[in-house]
Specification:
Blueprint: E1 2-8, H1 12-23, E2 28-32, E3 44-47, E4 50-53, H2 64-73, E5 78-82, E6 85-89, E7 92-96, H3 100-107, H4 109-124, H5 133-141, H6 143-149, H7 151-158, H8 167-173, H9 179-187, E8 206-210, H10 215-227, E9 231-234, E10 237-244, E11 249-255, E12 261-271, H11 275-281, E13 282-283, H12 288-295, E14 299-310, E15 319-322, E16 331-334, H13 335-338, E17 348-357, H14 368-382, E18 390-403, H15 409-423, E19 427-429, H16 432-435, H17 441-457
Parallel strand pairs: 1-2, 1-12, 2-9, 6-15, 10-13, 12-19
Antiparallel strand pairs: 3-4, 5-8, 6-7, 10-11, 11-12, 14-17, 14-18, 15-16, 16-17
Helix pairs in contact: 1-10, 1-17, 3-4, 4-5, 5-6, 5-8, 11-12, 12-15
């Protein structure tokens, strides 16, 4: 079988590229390993009529192109939803973003005073050029608030000490937010600016959301792609990518659901697969240096225990961050608060308890029954259910949910990127795992949009690595591109002064 563009993975990046290429009459085949769901980590799973996310996925972007794309794919099914989240710590719930007086009352005068003094010290004597998460956050909030509201949760997420996590992750996920901005927001709440570029993503108060979860968006995108002639092959796992230097073409080998091996020839490959897996599957092989760099990249895995229980209106938040070290759960989603249509019975609630782990560790290898019992116990311990409330549950495991930002990740990514760019000009890395960037779906989509522009123009109009966490393109130097030749974008994305990395989605 032959195609012009082969796309590995039917997540937001892969399907965005597939749809836009198909609109431009480019032959496209998407190979997706999952036999049932498109959307990757942005899919919506179902169980007995209940819908639930693999993590929470707010639809909010500063990019007009991304917003227009969402409206084009799902024009009549997007809800406006209020944003609400809290932190659970020390047996108490704290609003997030911070409400200064509430925090003062719940922490107590002595602890709050010490936190403010700690913040003042951090502002007067900051850690110069912070390189790790702990030092970066301490500079923004002070050591005491770091220990109270960041340390436990962050180490649950990553499974490594905060000193070993790159400051890049902090800058990306909580950009623009400090104790000062949080207190200002609490004391002087402002209306959401009309200019979305002025919004700190961590402080947004509303967002768009599909009626039945984010998977609804990507299922519609896959259907529209197929209606345009593109192919989306489910249950097809790519096991090798062979490059012919003489013809500059690719042959992908993939295994179908029956275990049979097939091949697919293509002029271009767009990969959203984990960088480590891609590099190890390429022929001819990359250098030992690049392979070592790829194999040094780390990933954090993730599982959701979805519980169906009696609806006691225990909480109305979209999610609650669990900073309490006495329980293993890291975050709890309330799917009715995302959309009432996620839960078919008004007398029932549907919660998702999220556990961060490594593949094949004790938690990951626990039976579904044991995980459901753990989730039931911890939900009661936190105070969000009572004995006998839980009626049913299921477990979903997600491999490689988070590319780990350890001390050396950037060096390893640069090593791999440089060799792939030099040797394989028609191989394009996009999306979260494809680029080993802990991004949101709008960022993943923008990398795909610009990748499509490059393919349509048959030249490198854009360096995809210059898309920032706000899904904007950071143009470098005075030789920046002035126009595009395709139809994915109506204009060159706004020029920004520096990469701006932000937000709190999974």
């Amino acid at each position: 079988m032959k195609t012009n563009v082969a796309i590995i993975g039917a997540g937001p990046a892969g399907l965005t590229a597939a749809y836009l290429l198909s609109k431009n009459n480019v032959e496209v085949t998407v190979l997706e390993a999952d036999p049932v769901y498109v959307g990757g980590i942005s899919r919506t799973a179902t169980y007995k009529g209940f819908h639930f996310d693999i993590g929470g996925h707010r639809f909010f972007s500063k990019s007009k192109e991304v917003n227009d794309f969402w409206n084009e794919i799902l024009p009549n099914d997007m809800l406006d939803r209020p944003r609400s989240s809290r932190i659970f710590y020390g047996g108490k719930f704290f609003a997030y973003p911070l409400k200064a007086f509430e925090a003062l009352m719940k922490l107590g005068v002595v602890k709050s005073t010490l936190c403010v003094l700690s913040y003042a010290k951090a502002r007067l004597f900051p850690v110069p050029n912070p390189t790790n998460f702990e030092d970066w956050v301490t500079n923004q909030f002070g050591k005491r608030l770091f220990n109270t509201f960041f340390k436990s949760y962050t180490e649950k997420v990553w499974g490594i000490p905060c000193k070993e996590i790159s400051a890049d992750w902090a800058a990306q996920r909580i950009k623009g937010l400090s104790l000062g901005s949080a207190i200002k927001n609490a004391l002087l709440p402002q209306k959401q600016p009309k200019d979305q570029n002025k919004v700190i993503k961590t402080l947004i108060n509303s967002f768009k959301y599909p009626r039945k979860g984010p998977g609804m968006m990507w299922e519609a995108c896959a259907e529209k792609t197929q209606a345009l002639g593109g192919k989306v092959e489910m249950g097809c796992k790519v096991v090798g990518c062979e490059y012919d230097e003489a013809t500059a073409t690719w042959t992908l080998r993939y295994k179908d659901q029956a275990g049979e091996i097939h091949t697919l020839e293509s002029e271009h490959v767009i990969s959203t697969a984990p960088m480590r897996e891609l590099v190890n599957g390429i022929q001819p092989s990359v250098s030992d240096k690049a392979k070592h760099a790829a194999n040094s990249l780390k990933y954090r895995d993730f599982l959701t225990v979805m519980l169906i229980l009696k609806n006691r209106d225990a909480f109305e938040d979209n999610w609650i961050y669990i900073h309490e070290p006495s329980v293993k759960v890291g975050r709890i989603q309330n799917f009715r608060s995302w959309s009432p249509e996620m839960v078919p019975d008004p007398n029932l609630a549907c919660y998702g308890l999220e556990y961060f782990c490594f593949e094949n560790d004790g938690l990951w290898d626990s039976s579904d029954a044991d995980l459901i019992e753990l989730a039931k116990k911890e939900l009661m311990q936190i105070g969000l259910s009572a004995e006998g409330d839980v009626m049913d549950g299921t477990v979903v495991r997600q491999k490689k949910a988070y590319p780990v930002y350890d001390d050396d990740y950037a060096k390893h990514v640069a090593t791999v990127r440089d060799e792939l760019d030099a040797r394989f000009p028609n191989l394009h890395l996009v999306g979260r795992n494809g680029m080993h960037k802990y991004n949101n779906q709008d960022h993943a989509m923008m990398t795909a949009m610009l990748c499509v522009e490059n393919i349509l123009a048959d030249t490198k109009l854009y360096d995809l690595w210059q898309v920032n966490g706000d899904a904007e393109y950071h143009e470098g130097g005075e030789a920046a591109v002035e126009q595009t030749t395709g139809t994915a974008l109506r204009q060159v994305p706004s020029r920004v002064k520096a990469p701006v990395l932000a937000s709190e989605q999974t």
